[in-house]
């Protein structure tokens, strides 16, 4: 079985408080985008994982695809599989690519083994792998609170708009990014603003990681300004960086970004 785990962007990312468990409460819109990895899982004599494409830092035994297998195997004793991940989504980029791989692996293993787990049950398994992971089970635009796993319906569609994602090849660790922010309660209605006019987003909808990271990595700020100069209706860094996205209704000239990793396409 083959699937195409896709990236997400954060439209607005408020870091509202530090929790007792060491995590932070956030408020954000998670929106799926088409930049995707390729994940193949087939039955096999023994469990194995290999990856091609972009190098994944860290021990392959801890890859989120294997973590997904072990989580389900603990409860359902599922037969071994061979997993092959072709990694395309930049890593440590605020795009949730690793989380998408883990969540898609859960969905595939549920189907291949006829486990009959509901989306809600799969979301609970996904939450054990990371805060971003549960989103990728339903993989639909949503307003998120809690540490990223509490979902609220959002009346927003960007269908028909174009998006460009520019990753300046800087790897930012999520943990490190959170340690640089001072949490602050929201002082306006983020959800209502997202459900309103996109023209109003520029002045209100903000990624709280930008305050510290745009000063440290000025190239991120430069790309964001450039996307606005090119006519973006809204531009922002996504997640804990370093990728910047711009949402457009017009064609986009990508020639300024040849030295970076870039993806552009239509939003659903
Ligand atoms: C910032 C966000 C925004 O969507 O995305 P990315 O930039 O990673 O894509 C997420 O909150 C990232 O979620 P995820 O990447 O799954 O993080 P996790 O593996 O759960 O946690 C990694 C570390 O980040 C910090 N962390 C994460 C989530 C959260 N709500 N509060 C935190 O303080 C903790 O220090 C934790 O140990
Ligand atoms: N399948 C995977 N793809 C990418 N990273 C993975 C994967 N499995 C585990 N990881 C670990 O997760 C970290 C970053 O995850 P990723 O979701 O790509 O970034 P971000 O947190 O910016 O969204 C990497 O440092 C890597 O060690």
Automatic annotation (TrEMBL):
Q: Which domain of life is it from?
A: Bacteria
Q: Which UniProt keywords apply?
A: ATP-binding, Isoprene biosynthesis, Kinase, Nucleotide-binding, Transferase
Q: Which reaction does it catalyse?
A: 4-CDP-2-C-methyl-D-erythritol + ATP = 4-CDP-2-C-methyl-D-erythritol 2-phosphate + ADP + H(+)
Q: What Enzyme Commission number does this protein have? A: 2.7.1.148
Q: What class of enzyme is it?
A: transferase
A GO molecular function annotation here is:
4-(cytidine 5'-diphospho)-2-C-methyl-D-erythritol kinase activity
Listed Pfam families: GHMP_kinases_C, GHMP_kinases_N
Q: Residues in the active site?
A: 8, 132
Q: Where is the GHMP kinase N-terminal domain?
A: 63-137
Keyword Hydrolase part of the UniProt annotation = no
HAMAP family per UniProt:
IspE (MF_00061)
Q: Which family does it belong to?
A: Belongs to the GHMP kinase family. IspE subfamily.
What biological function has been recorded for the protein in this entry? Answer: Catalyzes the phosphorylation of the position 2 hydroxy group of 4-diphosphocytidyl-2C-methyl-D-erythritol.
Q: What is this protein called?
A: 4-diphosphocytidyl-2-C-methyl-D-erythritol kinase
Recorded source organism is Flammeovirga agarivorans
